[in-house]
Specification:
By secondary structure, the protein is an all-alpha fold. It has six helices and two strands. It has a two-stranded antiparallel sheet.
Protein backbone atom coordinates (compact mmCIF):
# COMPACT_ATOMS: atom_id res chain seq x y z
CA UNK A 1 0.00 0.00 0.00
CA UNK A 2 2.86 2.33 0.86
CA UNK A 3 4.51 1.59 -2.50
CA UNK A 4 1.23 2.37 -4.28
CA UNK A 5 1.02 5.69 -2.45
CA UNK A 6 4.61 6.57 -3.38
CA UNK A 7 4.00 5.53 -7.01
CA UNK A 8 0.86 7.71 -7.12
CA UNK A 9 2.79 10.69 -5.67
CA UNK A 10 5.56 10.25 -8.22
CA UNK A 11 3.01 9.97 -11.04
CA UNK A 12 1.20 13.13 -9.85
CA UNK A 13 4.52 15.02 -9.60
CA UNK A 14 5.50 13.95 -13.13
CA UNK A 15 2.12 15.01 -14.52
CA UNK A 16 2.38 18.41 -12.83
CA UNK A 17 5.93 18.80 -14.12
CA UNK A 18 4.82 17.90 -17.69
CA UNK A 19 2.02 20.46 -17.47
CA UNK A 20 4.41 23.16 -16.25
CA UNK A 21 6.92 22.33 -18.98
CA UNK A 22 4.22 22.55 -21.66
CA UNK A 23 2.90 25.80 -20.24
CA UNK A 24 6.38 27.34 -20.39
CA UNK A 25 6.67 26.31 -24.04
CA UNK A 26 3.18 27.67 -24.73
CA UNK A 27 4.14 30.93 -23.03
CA UNK A 28 7.24 31.24 -25.22
CA UNK A 29 5.11 30.68 -28.34
CA UNK A 30 2.46 33.06 -27.06
CA UNK A 31 5.00 35.83 -26.45
CA UNK A 32 6.13 35.51 -30.09
CA UNK A 33 2.49 35.63 -31.21
CA UNK A 34 1.66 38.69 -29.13
CA UNK A 35 4.66 40.57 -30.50
CA UNK A 36 3.64 39.74 -34.07
CA UNK A 37 -0.04 40.48 -33.44
CA UNK A 38 0.83 43.89 -31.99
CA UNK A 39 3.17 44.72 -34.89
CA UNK A 40 0.69 43.60 -37.57
CA UNK A 41 -2.21 45.36 -35.84
CA UNK A 42 -0.19 48.59 -35.55
CA UNK A 43 0.72 48.42 -39.25
CA UNK A 44 -2.90 47.90 -40.26
CA UNK A 45 -3.93 50.82 -38.05
CA UNK A 46 -1.30 53.05 -39.73
CA UNK A 47 -2.58 52.01 -43.17
CA UNK A 48 -6.15 52.71 -42.06
CA UNK A 49 -5.24 56.18 -40.77
CA UNK A 50 -3.35 56.95 -43.98
CA UNK A 51 -6.32 55.92 -46.12
CA UNK A 52 -8.81 57.91 -44.01
CA UNK A 53 -6.59 61.00 -44.10
CA UNK A 54 -6.33 60.74 -47.89
CA UNK A 55 -10.11 60.23 -48.26
CA UNK A 56 -10.66 63.44 -46.29
CA UNK A 57 -8.17 65.29 -48.49
CA UNK A 58 -9.70 63.74 -51.60
CA UNK A 59 -13.20 64.84 -50.56
CA UNK A 60 -12.04 68.41 -49.92
CA UNK A 61 -10.06 68.56 -53.18
CA UNK A 62 -6.74 69.06 -51.41
CA UNK A 63 -5.20 65.65 -52.16
CA UNK A 64 -1.85 65.70 -53.88
CA UNK A 65 -1.64 63.68 -57.08
CA UNK A 66 1.11 61.24 -56.15
CA UNK A 67 0.00 60.81 -52.55
CA UNK A 68 -2.73 58.47 -53.83
CA UNK A 69 -0.10 56.12 -55.22
CA UNK A 70 1.67 55.99 -51.84
CA UNK A 71 -1.61 55.28 -50.09
CA UNK A 72 -2.44 52.46 -52.50
CA UNK A 73 1.01 50.85 -52.30
CA UNK A 74 0.84 50.93 -48.52
CA UNK A 75 -2.74 49.70 -48.21
CA UNK A 76 -2.60 46.89 -50.76
CA UNK A 77 -0.03 44.88 -48.83
CA UNK A 78 -0.41 43.63 -45.27
CA UNK A 79 1.81 41.48 -43.11
CA UNK A 80 0.69 37.89 -42.74
CA UNK A 81 0.32 36.43 -39.26
CA UNK A 82 2.33 33.27 -38.64
CA UNK A 83 1.05 31.72 -35.44
CA UNK A 84 3.20 29.69 -33.10
CA UNK A 85 0.91 26.96 -31.82
CA UNK A 86 3.15 23.89 -31.87
CA UNK A 87 3.52 23.63 -28.09
CA UNK A 88 -0.21 24.11 -27.53
CA UNK A 89 -1.11 21.48 -30.13
CA UNK A 90 1.21 18.95 -28.51
CA UNK A 91 -0.17 19.81 -25.07
CA UNK A 92 -3.78 19.62 -26.25
CA UNK A 93 -3.21 16.20 -27.78
CA UNK A 94 -2.09 14.70 -24.45
CA UNK A 95 -3.95 13.75 -21.32
CA UNK A 96 -2.36 16.58 -19.37
CA UNK A 97 -4.52 19.18 -21.16
CA UNK A 98 -7.71 17.45 -20.03
CA UNK A 99 -6.48 17.65 -16.45
CA UNK A 100 -5.58 21.36 -16.61
CA UNK A 101 -7.93 24.03 -15.27
CA UNK A 102 -11.17 24.80 -17.11
CA UNK A 103 -10.23 28.50 -17.19
CA UNK A 104 -6.94 27.69 -18.94
CA UNK A 105 -8.60 25.31 -21.40
CA UNK A 106 -11.25 27.89 -22.35
CA UNK A 107 -8.79 30.77 -22.64
CA UNK A 108 -6.46 28.66 -24.81
CA UNK A 109 -9.25 27.47 -27.06
CA UNK A 110 -10.62 31.01 -27.49
CA UNK A 111 -7.19 32.42 -28.24
CA UNK A 112 -6.11 29.74 -30.71
CA UNK A 113 -9.50 30.00 -32.42
CA UNK A 114 -8.54 33.63 -33.15
CA UNK A 115 -5.96 32.26 -35.58
CA UNK A 116 -8.88 31.36 -37.85
CA UNK A 117 -10.27 34.89 -37.58
CA UNK A 118 -6.91 36.41 -38.53
CA UNK A 119 -6.44 34.00 -41.44
CA UNK A 120 -9.98 34.69 -42.67
CA UNK A 121 -9.35 38.45 -42.53
CA UNK A 122 -6.05 38.07 -44.38
CA UNK A 123 -7.58 35.80 -47.03
CA UNK A 124 -10.51 38.18 -47.57
CA UNK A 125 -8.23 41.21 -47.65
CA UNK A 126 -5.83 39.59 -50.10
CA UNK A 127 -8.70 38.67 -52.40
CA UNK A 128 -10.12 42.18 -52.07
CA UNK A 129 -6.72 43.78 -52.72
CA UNK A 130 -6.54 41.94 -56.05
CA UNK A 131 -9.70 43.71 -57.20
CA UNK A 132 -8.32 47.02 -55.90
CA UNK A 133 -5.09 46.35 -57.78
CA UNK A 134 -7.11 45.76 -60.96
CA UNK A 135 -8.80 49.13 -60.46
CA UNK A 136 -5.76 51.22 -59.47
CA UNK A 137 -2.90 49.68 -61.48
CA UNK A 138 -3.84 51.33 -64.81
CA UNK A 139 -3.49 54.72 -63.07
CA UNK A 140 -0.48 54.15 -60.80
CA UNK A 141 3.15 53.21 -61.08
CA UNK A 142 3.62 51.28 -57.83
CA UNK A 143 7.41 51.18 -58.07
CA UNK A 144 7.74 54.95 -58.37
CA UNK A 145 4.64 55.61 -56.23
CA UNK A 146 3.33 57.92 -58.92
CA UNK A 147 -0.01 58.56 -60.58
CA UNK A 148 0.33 57.89 -64.32
CA UNK A 149 -3.20 58.95 -65.26
CA UNK A 150 -4.74 61.78 -63.24
CA UNK A 151 -8.26 60.82 -64.30
CA UNK A 152 -8.28 58.46 -61.30
CA UNK A 153 -8.36 61.52 -59.03
CA UNK A 154 -11.60 62.70 -60.65
CA UNK A 155 -13.52 59.45 -60.31
CA UNK A 156 -16.08 58.92 -57.59
CA UNK A 157 -15.21 55.24 -57.81
CA UNK A 158 -11.75 56.07 -56.46
CA UNK A 159 -13.17 57.54 -53.26
CA UNK A 160 -15.58 54.62 -52.92
CA UNK A 161 -12.75 52.11 -53.34
CA UNK A 162 -10.67 53.94 -50.74
CA UNK A 163 -13.60 53.78 -48.32
CA UNK A 164 -13.88 50.05 -48.98
CA UNK A 165 -10.16 49.66 -48.25
CA UNK A 166 -10.66 51.56 -44.99
CA UNK A 167 -13.59 49.32 -44.08
CA UNK A 168 -11.56 46.17 -44.66
CA UNK A 169 -8.66 47.58 -42.66
CA UNK A 170 -11.03 48.45 -39.83
CA UNK A 171 -12.14 44.81 -39.77
CA UNK A 172 -8.48 43.81 -39.54
CA UNK A 173 -7.86 46.22 -36.68
CA UNK A 174 -10.76 44.68 -34.76
CA UNK A 175 -9.54 41.13 -35.46
CA UNK A 176 -6.03 41.90 -34.25
CA UNK A 177 -7.28 43.79 -31.17
CA UNK A 178 -9.45 40.82 -30.18
CA UNK A 179 -6.58 38.39 -30.73
CA UNK A 180 -4.29 40.57 -28.62
CA UNK A 181 -6.86 40.79 -25.83
CA UNK A 182 -7.47 37.03 -25.82
CA UNK A 183 -3.73 36.34 -25.98
CA UNK A 184 -3.08 38.60 -23.01
CA UNK A 185 -5.82 36.83 -21.05
CA UNK A 186 -4.21 33.47 -21.80
CA UNK A 187 -0.81 34.87 -20.84
CA UNK A 188 -2.17 36.01 -17.48
CA UNK A 189 -3.14 32.39 -16.78
CA UNK A 190 0.35 31.18 -17.70
CA UNK A 191 2.29 33.70 -15.61
CA UNK A 192 1.73 33.46 -11.90
Amino acid sequence: VLALGVWHSIEKYQETKREEDYKQLILADLNKDLEEIKKNGDNIRKDYETVIQFVQQFASGSALNDSLASVIVSALSIDQFNGNSGAFQAFQAGETFANSSIAFQRAAEVYYHRYQTLVRFEDNYNEFSQSMNAYFSPYCNYTLKRITNKVVLEKEETKNNLLLIASYLETGIEAYEEALKDGQKLKSLLTY
